[in-house]
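Quick illustration, no need to memorize.
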Amino acid sequence: MSRAFVKEDTNAPPDLPDLPISPHPNFVTPRGLALLQSALAARQADLAALRARADRLDKLPEAAAERDIRYLSARLASAIAVDPAQHDGSEVAFGLLVTVADEDGDETTYQITGEDEADPAQGRIAPQSPLARALIGAAIGDTVTWRRPSGAVILEVIRIEQPTDPADDPRA
């Protein structure tokens, strides 16, 4: 009989590819570190609940949880915690809040955070982003050029501040 027609073990968990790990240094804010730890604990609890199910025929959710746990564990193991309070606020640095004004005078506040914490809709940008690269090292009153695919934008640094809220809300 041909092996093509033999049913293999259907209870084996599917092989899910691992989530890609960034090649960049894994700088994290205190908030970002707490978020990674919380996410890992949540996925570990999810996996325990999945394994406790009476009907465990579908192994995909377990495999996904195991993959996520591997990813989060790797991100935590490589985390380089940077406390924004270490910076004096004289220039834009990782973890600080920076308020910029565009050519029309519209102000926006950003925080440069770790990749896992970055959320542009919330004003949190990764250090590898073109905007963060343009801002890092700038002082109040400096102008920087943010090179975007749709064209360059000139921004003036208006304020540099320490985050005061544990949630590091960049006043979105």
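The two ends are 65 Å apart (CA to CA).
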